[in-house]
Amino acid sequence: MTSMLETPTTPVSAIGAPRLLAGVVDHGRVDHARHLALHGPPALRRRGWLVTASHEVGLLGRGGAAFPVSTKLAAMPTGTRCSVLLNGSEGEPASRKDRTLMTYAPHLVIDGALLVADALETDDVTIAVHDPVAHDSLVRACAERTDAGHVRVVRTRDGFVGGEVRAVVRGVDGGRAVPEGRRVLPHVRGVGGRPTFASNVETFAQLAVLSGLGVTRYAAVGPATEPGTSLVTLIGDTLRPGVVEVPNGTHLPLLLPPSPAPVLIGGYHGTWRPTADGLVVERASLRAAGAPLGAGVIARPYAGTCVVDEVVRVARWLASESAGQCGPCWFGLPAVADDLAALAGGAGPDRAASAHRRLDLVRGRGACSHPDGSAMFVGSALEVLAAELSVHQHHGRCGLPPSNVLPLPVGAR
Questions:
Q1: pTM (2 decimals)?
Q2: pLDDT tens, position by position, 172-182
Q3: Count of Cβ atoms closer than 10 Å to residue 155 Cβ
Q4: Domain boundary among 300, 326, 354
């Protein structure tokens, strides 16, 4: 009998030939024997090769910051005093890409970890993951092979801010999983105070694919500006709900049916857009358009539903996720959520002005990116949903059925 671990509970698909999800789409969890048949053993490389290759393909980190991998690798020293940290703390409620990758293609993640560790001449490797199913799959994968005995798989606490890399470092070291007030990057001081190459788990899987294919074959898919593929989570009114591996450069309208409904790009630290027209899955292009891909979430409510109350609910949850380390976040985000709720209930333009004023006070003043990301989510909603908010202002409610697309953790209100 097939277990839930073997068969993805979130729909999984690919446009074109899958790389990261090779074998997963057809068979579910890829064990070590199937992984070796698909990918072969890890193709270990020197640090210089990885720096050059990741630069040539323009590989960007698959976390929210999309930092150039080659720059981060080049900044690292080598030797046993270094550490490698894989961030699998997917605190974004709308995203399923990382936990899907760790659960169903764990060996590709481990290959990437071993590749980087070997290049940096260290055996100090930690995979931090909060999802229990993904954690168990990674532990099982390490036991399935003989080269991963030094890989440590650590459960982290749930929490949106707890997924920020500096918070993950503190959590792995036994402290409270919140970012430090000082923005010291892990390559300077990370796990155990050591220089640490830290990145999202998909980044490591991408490095494993790059090492196995080589630059030319890796770059055969996608545009020259950002070759390769990406994992995205599509939710709501989409053509392929679930986790999808897409070639970079894919036009977003190819993933969404025609609809007048707005689109959320990047998740709960993302941006609302009135339409996906003209947008492609390419990080530099999306950032230039003011809609960074962030956590890789693309969500669209169904036409004819009210999104306003759902945005209020997410805004309240974002406020509740504050680490409580700085006033703009601790006091500002709840106040912004209150303004938004008042607007949804029929308040006048003075509350809209209040919300915009508070957002200006929140941006750029936090100890981490949470205030900025939350302000982006709310601020873009105020702009894109202006017509819907106007209806609420004049009638109290719009009368449309509520949208129920944007997920929150169990128990969140």
A1: 0.95
A2: 888 877 777 66
A3: 15
A4: 300
